[in-house]
Amino acid sequence: MLKKVLFLALLTLLFPLGKANAQEQSGITVIPSIMHLDLAEDKPEYILTYVNNTDTEINLLLSVQDFTELEESYKISFLEGKEAENYKYSLSSWISFENRTLQLSKGEKKTVKIFIDNQRITKGGHYASILAEIVQPEKKEEVNVKAVISSLLFVRASTGQEIEEGKISSFRPLRDFIEYPDTYRLSFENSGNVHVIPYGLIEVFDPLGNRVAKGAFNEDSLDALPESIRRYDTLVTTYHKVLLPGIYRAQVKLHFGKSKKEVSFSTTFFSQGSFDFIKIGLGLFLLTALAIYIRRKRIIKSNS
Predict the structure, then answer these.
(1) Which residues fall within 8 angstroms of residue 293, CB to CB, at 6 or more apart?
(2) What is the pLDDT of residues 24-61, one digit of tens each?
(3) Is 64 in contact with 150 (CB distance < 8 Å)?
(4) Residue 277, SS3?
(5) Spatial distance between the Cα atoms of 205 and 187, rounded to a whole number of angstroms
(6) pLDDT below 50 — which residues of the chain?
């Protein structure tokens, strides 16, 4: 029997949404790599374009697989069997293809249309990955490598029962000990039944109440899936060169969904600011030790 290794070049991040990104694996490009459809506004179909950048003819076999996001992470988990059947945000049941196979000559580009059954799809958000497996002829090599390229599809139904709800479950600086932080971690809990993209602004205020830093939240437009918690890390830009030690306050204001719902959260923390307490403490210790040494030398000298 020939050994077969299945290499899945699947997306492990929910990439920026609303952009025609290209995903490439083994010389095959798919555009877009991620797609959003709102059935209240968009047609229940979209087009994928596959480009053969290799020097040989390529055959693609298209399929669909449901996925969910791993809790508190950027990775996704693909569902199979009963797990997929029982998942209420599954999309695969309502997807059909114009063609299941594509044959691409060297340098050739072809499109395939994907259809969504908007008459039967249930309420809320649904999502799946469109997989294109590169089908290779059986050879006598010991290892026959297959590649699969994916494109993520997010669909929002239009039943009138779509719910947008969410909150910030945690918000804190990422740092070592009492160092002044430049990155903040936020967990957004989506308790609705549709995927949303939270946007907003993080602001940081010093002990005197002056704003010293700010940063745009979720610049990559990462999705928060329904009934899940998504973790976001945001880098802020600090504008003050000298930062006082003391109690700092960081606040974040977000909006999300078609209804532009707003949520906010604030946290306080002690920071040494621009000063390095360890180095300062070490310096004071050395100065004190030096002063004691000099004093003792003088006392000894005066008594002699």
Answers:
(1) none
(2) 555 889 999 999 999 999 999 999 999 999 888 889 99
(3) no
(4) helix
(5) 21
(6) 1-20, 140, 142-143
